[in-house]
Amino acid sequence: MNTRTDTHSELIGYLLWIFGFTGSHRFYFGRPVTGTIWFFTLGLLGIGWLIDLFLIPWMERTAELRFYMGKWVTGIIYLLTGGLFLLGLLYDLWTLNSQVSELNRIKG
């Protein structure tokens, strides 16, 4: 029996999409490479950001992990304030899925 457990919120994805020119919604859904591209190109100059409005339901269905280890408020604040001069933010976004995977393994 294949039981699917949702671990990402489509609503949170859309809220992060508002700031999507930074790639935050892509990092949230476990896509660090394209998130980094969005981060440095302002969402592919806005074109990719606009297209993502329609891709969020697909990203939510294919995502496997939770946002910022369940620390929603801290995670969103960190995303929106740029972390530690953006370098801390970028590091956290690159390692987000592995951090969450580890946390999920511990919680069992």
Oligomeric organization of the protein chains? single chain
Question: Terminal Cα separation, in Å?
Answer: 18 Å
The structural domain count equals 1
Secondary-structure element string: HHHHHH
Keywords:
single chain; mainly alpha; 108 residues
What does this structure look like?
This protein has 6 helices and no strands. It has 108 residues and is an all-alpha fold. The protein has one domain (10-107). Helix 3 packs antiparallel against helix 4. The longest helix is centred in the last third of the chain and has 21 residues, at 87-107.
Protein topology:
Layout lengths: L9 H8 L6 H5 L3 H14 L1 H16 L9 H10 L5 H21 L1
Helix pairs in contact: 1-4, 3-4, 3-6
In short:
This protein has six helices and no strands. The chain has 108 residues and is mostly helical.
